[in-house]
Amino acid sequence: MTAMTPEAPDVLAATDGRPTATREARQRRNGALASPRQRNSKVAASLILVVIGVAFVIPLGWIVLAAFDSAATVSVKLPTSVTLNNFTEIMNWETTFRPLWNSLIISMGTAIITVLCSVLAAYPLSRYQMRWRKPFMYTVLFGTCLPITAMMVPVYALFVAFGLLDNLGGTVLFLAATALPMAIWMTKNFMDSIPVALEEAAWVDGASAMTALWRIVVPLMRPGIAVVFIFVFTQAWGNFFVPFVLLFSETSQPAAVAIFGFFGTYGTISYGRLAAFSILYSVPVLALYLLVQRLSGSSFAMAGAVKG
Amino acid sequence: MATLALPGRDHRDPGRSPGSRRVVQSLLRTSPLIPAVVLLLLFLAGPIVYSLYGSLTNASLTGPKAAQPDFVGFDNYAQLIDNPQFWKSLVLTLVFVIASALIGQNLLGMALALLMKAAHGPMRAVVSTIVVVSWVLPEIVAAFALYAFFASDGTLNIMLGWFGVEGSAWLIVLPMLAVILANVWRGTAFSMMVYSAALNDVPPEITEAAQIDGASGWQRFSRITVPMIRRSISTNLMLTTLQTLGVFTLIWVMTGGGPGVESSTLPVLAYQEAFKFSQVGYGTAIATVTLVLGGLFAIVYIKALKPEVD
């Protein structure tokens, strides 16, 4: 059973390496001189890490290598002849640019609506003591936990009833609603860390709550807002199931759904072009992830914000 | 909808407002919540309520029953309980969640976090980047990459060939194992990051004291480190469970739920019933069951997180 699973042996190996690994780390922190045995355990940990890394990199490697291969198949191999044809062939409006443009409209729209709504909602939740604030926050937390994919059948039925099927606006509003609980939660936590004293000064000078929010709080929490924006944008950009169910005319399909077209309907699958398209489609979110890392100064940015 | 002003925060209105003014003021104060609440009610609470109602009808995708479904009471649920396919799907969902999230992602994530601490610096950077990229990629791209990996003439079988092992059509022979490993590949980065952060918060003095007292590496890990990061572990277990419960794209691309229904977890089954066999009411009943399942997990999770809300 284990022979065919690249991960399985690694799990076992990693478990075996665990005790020595921790001990070694402690010693290093302690400033103790590394004995030969500790050096060995450091080497062992690195070796195990390399094995796991190789297991993780192989599927990624396929995308990159196949994109530049003139005769790509499903297996990882060095390109028989390196070519940019896969890219040049898909560089047209119908295949690549329209789906990416649709993705951009959907993700931008979702992120803008979500961030606006959650900044507005977070302000009273963060600044005023309200009787129902706790139940509201619990409901929001509950909303972050719902398996949205499980909901798509009733959502489809509801969109039929609203006449919103195949409507970009409707899809954007739904994506915004599903992103809102997490966005409100994150925005409120960011806002809580902005001291209230500055706003009090503005209030004394006669500013309204809304003026204080837009002139003082929002500029101060710009990095936090950027993190929420990118988080929502990335989720909408990568979402396949929601547009797959709610949008069916080719002209409004985003890249996540258009990519599915390479797969089934054209009979023989052009893996090279599929991989090239995957790269063009993935680069924006990878770049945004790097941006988030810089904004919050740690590789843990997204997950950390999620944890609250 | 009345609000209580926090003394000391409310400088504009030093407590001389009569009742009616208070109400107006509190309404004004809560008005910024309106856009968010409207969106949430329409597009999140709406489908949930509709899910409960729709599962009691015989709505279909096309034909007369699409426009005017009849109310059929609990027929869909009765049908579900009688249907062995549903029970199979429920079991597959549990297997998928337990094997890929609770065991795979958590153990491998913890192992990676521990190894990262011990390994050489450059190695740490390279491997963590690779693992995180597989998590940041759009889900459908990850699904294609893994489909290619497990396909009959895919990378896995070629690599097995190097060792003289004959491969197999993994996606057909062992579809569940393939999607479980795929989900481990896809989601481990999250657990790794949660555990890396948690391990960094454990003060080294405590484990050092234990070491001086002669505790072995495993003892220090299981008796000191694990209890100290208990909260991170339980949070992470819940989050990965909820994420995995909703996985659709990965399974849909890799196996389509098949062969037959051999890898149809509940979200995939709901989709198949509603859109392949156009039984929207029945599919909605499956969706409702999945929502209730997710809701139960969510309540456990919120109970665990309670101090952070209060």
UniProtKB/TrEMBL annotation, chain A:
Record's keyword terms, sorted: Cell membrane, Membrane, Transmembrane, Transmembrane helix, Transport
One annotated Gene Ontology cellular component of this protein: plasma membrane
UniProt key word Chaperone: no
GO biological process, alphabetically ordered: transmembrane transport
The ABC transmembrane type-1 domain, residue ranges: 100-292
Region called Disordered, residue ranges: 1-36
Bilayer topology: Multi-pass membrane protein
Subcellular location(s) per record: Cell membrane
Transmembrane segments: 43-68, 100-123, 135-162, 168-186, 225-249, 269-292
Stated family: Belongs to the binding-protein-dependent transport system permease family.
PANTHER family (alphabetical): INNER MEMBRANE ABC TRANSPORTER PERMEASE PROTEIN YCJP, MALTOSE TRANSPORT SYSTEM PERMEASE-RELATED
The name this protein goes by in its record: Putative integral membrane transport protein
Organism: Serinibacter arcticus
Taxonomic lineage from the root: Bacteria, Bacillati, Actinomycetota, Actinomycetes, Micrococcales
